[in-house]
Amino acid sequence: xTARATTPTSSTNPGNTTVASPTLFQRAVALLAAFRARPSMxxxxxxDRNKEPIAQVLAKYAPFSLSECKSCLEIASGTGxxxxxxxxxxxxxxxxxxxxxxxxxxxxxxxxxxxKPVFDSIVAHSGGMANVLPPCELDAAATExxxxxxxxxxxxxxxxxxxxxxxxxxxxxxxxxxxxxxxLLAPDGALFIYGPFMVEGQHTAPSNEAFDQRLRExxxxxxxxxxxxxxxxxxxxxxxxxxxxxxxxxxxxxxFRKGAGRGSAQ
Length: 266
Ligand SMILES: C[S@@+](CC[C@H](N)C(=O)[O-])C[C@H]1O[C@@H](n2cnc3c(N)ncnc32)[C@H](O)[C@@H]1O
Hints:
Elements: E1 3-4, E2 19-20, H1 24-37, H2 45-58, E3 70-75, H3 81-89, E4 93-96, E5 98-99, H4 116-126, E6 136-137, H5 147-150, E7 157-163, H6 171-184, E8 185-195, E9 197-198, H7 206-218, E10 225-226, H8 227-236, E11 239-247, E12 251-258
The chain binds S-adenosylmethionine.
């Protein structure tokens, strides 16, 4: 167990540092901030559409399927809709929302230079929840992630979650995502990524192929990634693909488990 969420007395595995949940004082401050940030609350229609199907898939896999205190680091929290929804669904998991300040202009994410409006939206959705930490900046492509300096050395996460990131960012972001997850996941922790993916070098629908084309026209470093390429990245960082869950609208949830000796679901 690596997270302490709502139960202050929860135990930990030797050698694993816990991710502390917000204190009562922090929650009170966050609740006030959430109230004040309400006018800044952003919503993405896609996040509203996919949050329930994603939650249903997450519920099948540890740490979300368990009942003891766990932790999840979210990469690119966007509007904050997902972290708020999942924190309510999985109350035993402490979530750390993050966002990138670099200004990736995805379809739902207008370019921004400052993270304040982004953090305001995340806080408006999730501030004051017992199991959501304040949002922080995180560049997944960085060789060291900001959270590595915010938590005690040796802190490990039970899950890393990234939704609609790999195709709307340069490949270096996917590389950094797998490297970071490999570094920071607890033994048996898992990386969950959602989005459109190719399987064995093939698009899974003509609409995905057209989407891939549009992405690459918009930014040549973007594009729908292949599950085999991601499985290779995972292997390089001590993870194996545990599951490839088909989702509505030709998307997938891919689950990569830390630790060797598991079957591959490429
Ligand atoms: C389409 S949005 C997805 C946002 C949110 N996860 C959702 O599903 O609504 C793409 C996200 O990728 C993020 N992103 C781009 N480059 C990144 C990087 N280097 N590190 C972390 N996130 C990045 C953007 O900031 C943006 O939030």
